[in-house]
């Protein structure tokens, strides 16, 4: 199977091999993601309609940490930003590494995970800090409703499943 054109620069595809250290770093990042997911879930205690911004913020962080876990697994330096763009060079590098190591199916899962990270990463600053309006700041909980929080929370759950599947593939079923 030929590798898709992810425009890998400065990285030899013949050198890709997941290390025990990469697996450990990925698992640690995934545990941090699960903690953010649990925090997002705790915001549903009581009246969930009161905290959709907090749910979105913690869900976004979960998604971001899941994506970064795969970067660490494949020993590609993850971007330091909350938004990881699917079309960025680091994303292309990790997608190519996953494709080479595990095949198209897992590269597709990785692409979906990075897409979710890009989607919710752009919402992070507003969900976390709100925004300034002419008469003061407006918090995200004032204009988001439960639906936005629910969608982010559900996508965070998907992100955990995607990351776990890829890490488990590396750990228990290497190519």
SSE layout:
Blueprint: H1 20-42, H2 52-73, H3 89-102, H4 104-121, H5 124-129, E1 131-133, E2 136-138, H6 146-172
Antiparallel strand pairs: 1-2
Helix pairs in contact: 1-2, 1-6, 2-4, 2-6, 3-4, 4-6
If you had to describe this structure to a student in words, what would you say it looks like?
The chain is mostly helical and 175 residues long. It has a single domain, classed as Nucleotidyltransferases  domain 2 (Four Helix Bundle (Hemerythrin (Met), subunit A)). Helix content is 63%, strand content 3%. It has six helices and two strands. The protein has helices at residues 20-42, 52-73, 89-102, 104-121, 124-129, 146-172; strands spanning 131-133, 136-138. A two-stranded antiparallel ribbon has the order 1-2. A hairpin with a 2-residue loop joins strand 1 (131-133) and strand 2. It is elongated.
Brief sketch in words of this structure:
With 175 residues, the chain is mainly α. It has 6 helices and 2 strands; from the N terminus they run H-H-H-H-H-E-E-H.
**In whole angstroms, how far apart are the ends?**
14 Å
Output the helix-strand order.
Answer: HHHHHEEH
Which structural category do the helix and sheet elements fall into? mainly alpha
CATH class: Mainly Alpha
Quote the CATH topology: Four Helix Bundle (Hemerythrin (Met), subunit A)
Instruction: Please name the fourth-level CATH homologous superfamily.
Output: Nucleotidyltransferases  domain 2
What is the makeup of the main sheet?
2 strands, antiparallel
Separate helix tally: 6
**Proportion of strand residues:** under 5%
How are strands sequenced across the largest beta sheet?
A: 1-2
Number of domains: 1
Number of strands: 2
Uncertain segments are 1-14
Radius of gyration: 17 Å
């Amino acid at each position: 199977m030929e590798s898709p054109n992810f425009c890998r620069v400065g990285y030899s595809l013949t050198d890709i091999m997941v290390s025990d250290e990469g697996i450990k770093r990925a698992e640690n990042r995934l545990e941090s993601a699960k903690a953010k997911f649990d925090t997002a879930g705790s915001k549903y205690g009581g009246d969930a309609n009161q905290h959709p911004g907090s749910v979105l913020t913690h869900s976004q962080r979960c998604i971001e940490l899941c994506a970064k876990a795969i970067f660490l697994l494949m020993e590609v330096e993850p971007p330091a930003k909350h938004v990881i763009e699917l079309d960025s060079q680091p994303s292309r590098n990790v997608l190519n590494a996953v494709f080479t190591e595990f095949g198209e199916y897992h590269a597709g899962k990785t692409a979906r995970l990075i897409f979710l990270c890009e989607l919710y990463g752009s919402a992070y600053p507003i969900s976390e800090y709100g925004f300034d309006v002419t008469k003061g700041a407006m918090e995200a909980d004032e204009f988001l409703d439960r639906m936005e929080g629910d969608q982010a929370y559900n996508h965070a759950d998907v992100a955990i499943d995607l990351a776990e599947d890829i890490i488990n593939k590396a750990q228990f079923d290497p190519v």
